[in-house]
Amino acid sequence: MATKRTTPRSISRRGFLYGSGLLGAAAVIGGSSLLAACGGDDDDSSDATAGGGSGGGSKLVFDNWPEYIDGETVDAFREATGIDFQYLEAYNDNNEYFAKVFPVLSKGERIAADIVAPTFWMAARWISLDWAQKLPLDKVPNAKNLRDDLVNPTWDPTGEYTLPWQTGITGIAYNLKATGRELTSVADLFDPEFKGRIGMLTEMRDTIGLILLSEGKDPSTLETYDDAASAFDKLDKAVSDGQIRAFTGNDYIDDLVSGNFAANIAWSGDVLQLSKENPDIRFVFPEEGAMSWADSMLLVKGSEAADAAAKWMDFVYDPANAARITAEAQYVSPVKGVRDELVKMGGEAAELAESPLLFPDAATLANLRSFANLSEEVEAEYDAKFAEITGA
Amino acid sequence: MTATVAETRVPPWHRRPELVGVGMVLVLGLGAVALAAGWVPDALEPIVAGLLLALVIGVIVVAITGSGDVRRKLAPYGLLQPGFLWLSLFFLAPLWVLFVMSLSTKESRFDPSPTFSWDFSNYTEAFTDFRPQFSRGFGYAAAATVLCIVIGYPMAYVIAFRGGRWKNLLLGMVVVPFFTSYLIRTLAWQTLLADEGPIVGVFDATGFSSVLEFLGVMDNGRLLNTPWAVIGGLTYNFLPFMLLPIYVSLEKIDLRLVDAAKDLYSTAGRAFRKVVLPLSLPGVFAGSLLTFIPAAGDFVNAQFLGGPNTYMIGNSIQNQFLVQNDYPLAAAMAFVLMFIITVAVVIYTRVLGTEDIA
After folding, report:
1. Cβ contacts (< 8 Å) between A106 and chain B: which residues?
2. CATH for A168-291+372-390, among 3.40.190.10, 1.20.1440.130, 3.40.50.300, 3.40.50.2000?
3. What pLDDT digit, counting tens, does each position of B104-122 carry?
4. Chain A residues touching residue B97 (CB < 8 angstroms)
5. CA torsion sign, A179 to A181 to A182 to A186?
């Protein structure tokens, strides 16, 4: 349940994020039920709960993951368009956010946010539950800059409901001081030498996906539980052997730096930041292959701000704006042309243009897999089994 | 003659005001539950709410028009009303909703409104599939409660009897850390207990860690992510809830009783056992309840200080609600948890009940 993919600029802020996430989510629920009760509002206050009234598209609320944007883009967008745009870091956890909006959206009522940032598999769930509305893509000319491999992805086969916000890679991070040797593969995580010092992610798809890859199986073609049963069994055994110390969200950063974890499954953007400050922290694309993921922008059903949302998406799909976001968030941008813009920005940003984690080479890309789109029943089975193994 | 005329003129609601009072309390309570639990169709809700309001106004009118005696008899019910209404709205109604949910079936995973069907399989599943988490939850909570007594009682004793003018300062020092958020305090323990952290470092340097390793407290050179880290976190987080009630019950003990015991040739130890300890038991009793009950349902400590093999029932309920979206099963688990806690508390009260001492 922990937060995920916050960049570790200041780790001590994490506790604050948990709290503010809860508050923010409470505001979402509170605000949305209030809105549902009294219809639209024309109150112009700028707090979280007042967002997304029937202001004819001049208001826009985006619930995104924390620390996922630079400091300028939001203001620049407000100035360029005059839209009353509220960018909130209220999306802390896929399952939690889902559980919080579930009672509201499943009744056909609307939530305060116009755009939300579910990870790809969660976006698929929103689409299948009919909680999303089609994007007015004709008003997003910059959508042509979408990376070719992200056109019509498995989670949104027609590409009509989502545009990716950022994408990233799940691989292995290790602390060279703790391991004493360089790691190269997922199999290293099961080396008895590291008993009790291995971390894995609470994100089922990242953890199970990597284990499947290590067994030579393709996680992008799963259909039934049996297809992944071997990976679940392997994980189950590792947990009962005491090989795995903990399942975490983004908080693996602390454990990795302090040496509690010798190695763990990790997200590329996090580790890129860490390794700059501490050269012993390394990230590898496992030789068996790595998982790729995307956090999307999805227009919530019932939102009346479709036009404003289109303007926002167009704005951040402009390579110059996208490059500014990449320079700060340090994830793999879904926008073509970012690399050139980074070079133009010079300095540290230009260095990023050379990073293999931000712009992986063709060989790495060929080894990337994204987790299959599971049916509702199979997903429930996977989730239940994973919960059982992780102890909850 | 005039007396009987007056008697007959008194309207019925002035003749038996206590019945009016009881009626008001019950009808309002029931009405509040009905509104909150969704028994009333949405369209009728304003009407029902209006009727309830009219009832309150009616009773006030009865009180104003009645004699002083009527008002005197109505007053207790008026005073009872806010509390009863609160309980109805925020305890009885949610409990009822939870109960109905625990016996419901979902048609699909994301069925927004599970249908009530006397589905007891939720309960059997709660019992069979989550036995380790239940036993860990209660085991850790019991261990933490005992540790809280062991640590908290001497502290409370010293503050109450030896504190002197430092008493308030010492109490403040117990409470001040708890001005920080629960979550942050727990996360801080992660840092303290880390493998390369200060505590393990001292243990390693003094050779104490091999003793702990032998005792099974440390596992492979680590404290964090072991059952004892979870129990330690619970103990730390609930200590004031144990210490403060014990302090209060110790503080009001008349020390002359101890002097009297000593005058009668009792030793200090015997005086403590025969006088101070029994008189302080109500505090221990209250503290144990305040510690054990929330600790049994806690999930934060197991989440951050434990690992996959130390999760408690609170973690499982949270997972069922937030990840699996299985509200019926989660509701059944919550009910089982409440039931076991109730039974445990009733037994505890019977065995260690302190009514005749207090």
Report:
1. 110, 112
2. 3.40.190.10
3. 999 888 888 899 999 899 9
4. none
5. negative
Beta-carbon separation of B324 and A384 below 8 A: yes
Please say if the pLDDT value at position A347 is more than 60: yes
The predicted structure's pLDDT at residue A10:
39
Question: Nearest residue on chain B to A104, judged by CA atoms?
Answer: B112
Task: Decide: helix, strand or coil at residue A67.
Answer: coil
Question: Shortest CA distance to A259 belongs to which of A274, A272, A269?
Answer: A274
Report how many domains make up chain B: 2
pLDDT tens digits for range A5-49:
444 433 333 444 444 444 444 444 433 333 333 333 333 333 443
* Other CB atoms within 10 A of residue B294 CB: 16
The whole-number pLDDT of residue B104 equals 93
On whether the CB atoms of residues A151 and A132 are closer than 8 A, the answer is no
Kindly determine whether residue B112 and residue A107, on different chains, have CB atoms separated by under 8 Å.
yes
What is the per-residue burial (b if ≥16 Cβ within 10 Å, else e) of A221-236? ebeebebbeebbebbb
| Residue B110 belongs to some domain of the structure | no
User: Which residue, chain included where needed, has tokens 């027609």?
Assistant: A158
pLDDT < 50 regions, chain B: 1-3, 5, 357-358
Task: Assign domain A13-167+294-353 to its CATH superfamily.
Answer: Periplasmic binding protein-like II (3.40.190.10)
Q: Could you tell me the residue range of the domain that residue B133 belongs to?
A: 122-352
DSSP A165-213: EEEEEEEEEEEHHHHSS---SGGGGG-GGGTT-EEEES-HHHHHHHHHH
Question: For residue B133, what are the contacts with CB-CB under 8 A and spacing of at least 6?
Answer: A391, A392, B311, B312, B313, B315, B316
- Give the model's pLDDT for residue A250: 81
The conformation of residue A1, written as its DSSP 8-state character, comes to -
Does the pLDDT of residue A248 top 80, yes or no?
Answer: yes
Contact A290, A171 (CB under 8 A): yes
Nearest residue of B to residue A261, measured between CA atoms: B195
- CB distance B324–A106 less than 8 Å? no
Q: A271 exposed, middle or buried (CB, 10 Å; 0-12, 13-18, 19+)?
A: buried
Cβ distance B224 to A240 less than 8 Å, yes or no, reads: no
